[in-house]
Amino acid sequence: MDFYQRTLFKILKLQGAFDSVLEELVKLVSAELDVSRVSVWRGSASAGGISCLALYDNISKNVERGVFLSAHLYPSYFSAINKTVCLSIEDAREDQRTSEFLNNYLLPLNICSMLDAPIIINGEVRGVICFEQVNHKRTWTNDELVFVAEIAQFVPNKSFKKSAELLKKNLRQLLKIALMLFIFLKQLEIKSKRS
Questions:
Q1: pTM across the whole model
Q2: Are the C-beta atoms of 41 and 53 separated by less than 8 Å?
Q3: 2-163 in CATH: which number?
Q4: Which end of the chain is more exposed for a tag (fewer CB within 10 A), N or C?
């Protein structure tokens, strides 16, 4: 478990824009845990599906974004991700929760095993973090299950921090506009008194 704690500490120290942090996160986790593919997705069944914010492929060394998985095409998966802290799936091709991905996702990418955890914000699933093993099946350890659940808690914290920073920036701009408007109105008032 010390290894996972050290990796989590590295993740907590990630700084920068939200997109950059996500890219570094998926690369770091993939390398540290020797996982073929690590991705972060935004969305839910109620949102119609999930879209990929960052996916790192440890074999090609590429980061991808923008893939969309529609909830109506994969109802078993979306139902399962809404009912658990994490989905630990050694054989993703045969497991009823993920077998719907077989022809469109698992076979073309040679994905054999998956470990997914929902990203929960305000009590609702708002995304997923996904570990995918290609070329061979992988039995996920209990430490890995805990680890993916902990990472799923980290993502919304970074997202909330980004939202809070954006809110502060917008409030500062509104205050500047309000001050300029106040000065303008005072100048108009002074001019009208002179007339």
A1: 0.76
A2: yes
A3: 3.30.450.40
A4: C
